[in-house]
UniProtKB/TrEMBL annotation:
Keyword vocabulary terms for this entry: Amino-acid biosynthesis, Hydrolase, Magnesium, Metal-binding, Serine biosynthesis
GO CC, one annotated term: cytoplasm
Coiled coil: none
Record family assignment: Belongs to the HAD-like hydrolase superfamily. SerB family.
A molecular-function term among this protein's GO annotations: L-phosphoserine phosphatase activity
Cited InterPro entries: HAD-like_SerB, HAD-like_sf, HAD_sf, PSP
Residue positions of the active site: D9, D11
Protein name: phosphoserine phosphatase
Pathway terms, separated by semicolons: Amino-acid biosynthesis; L-serine biosynthesis; L-serine from 3-phospho-D-glycerate: step 3/3
Cofactor: Mg(2+)
Lineage: Bacteria, Bacillati, Bacillota, Bacilli, Lactobacillales
EC number(s) stated in the UniProt entry for this protein: 3.1.3.3
Pfam families assigned: HAD
Species annotation: Streptococcus suivaginalis
Length: 211
């Protein structure tokens, strides 16, 4: 029987980097993309518009770019231990990301996560078109995934945990039984019930055990 559910953001939470910024570097527009990312995460820009703007800058990149950026991505310290401990306690562990399935799926497979939701980039003839396929993962999507996966596992929202760093994580952080700002932007620090300000995901266990 499932005892609980953790839903995490990916960029700057599960991993140390921002995946889209790494793609921007590969496209030669690293600073431009990173500046938009920073503003979006602070809540200064509409996330969907900011994502489309950044993805447009990636047009023409070969799909093989994902193999290269995977080499530059590092799990945040404590990630594997946290997932193992929660699974040992009967939790499901999920990620929901404004990033892309092309990298997030690989990360989730390495940690054997239970659920993954992210954006998907359009590829034609082996090249990125600068477009996103389907609906973009927004702050409302993140909250909806938390709610849907809780229902699917017969859980009350009081049995859920949500953790992230950006403004688009706030609705799910505020909806969950335990909502955690992880090394987060100021707006998230101010509004989240719990905070971890050390780059160590296993610190979540201290919050959980202190409840």
């Amino acid at each position: 029987m499932t005892k609980g559910l953790l839903v995490m953001d990916v960029d700057s939470t599960l991993i140390l980097e921002e995946g889209i910024d790494l793609l921007g570097e590969e496209a030669g527009v690293g600073e431009e993309v990173a500046a938009i990312t920073e503003r979006a995460m602070r809540g200064e820009l509409d996330f969907e518009e900011a994502l489309r703007e950044r993805v447009a800058l990636l047009k023409g990149l070969p799909v093989t770019v994902f193999d290269r950026i995977m080499e530059k991505i590092h799990f945040t310290p404590g990630a594997a231990d946290l997932v193992a401990e929660l699974k040992n306690r009967g939790y499901k562990v999920a990620v929901v990301s404004g990033g892309f399935h092309e990298t997030v799926d690989r990360l989730a497979a390495q940690l054997e996560l239970d659920y993954v939701r992210a954006n998907r980039l359009e590829v034609v003839d082996g090249l990125l078109t600068g477009q996103v396929l389907g609906e973009i993962v927004t702050k409302e999507t993140k909250k909806a995934c938390l709610e849907a996966w809780a229902v699917e596992n017969g859980l009350e929202l009081s049995q859920t945990i949500a953790m992230g760093d950006g403004a688009n994580d706030l609705p799910m952080i505020q909806r969950a039984g335990i909502g955690v700002a992880f090394c987060a932007k100021p707006i998230v620090q101010e509004q989240a019930p719990y905070r971890i300000n050390e780059k160590n995901l296993y610190k979540l266990i201290e919050i959980l055990d202190g409840k």
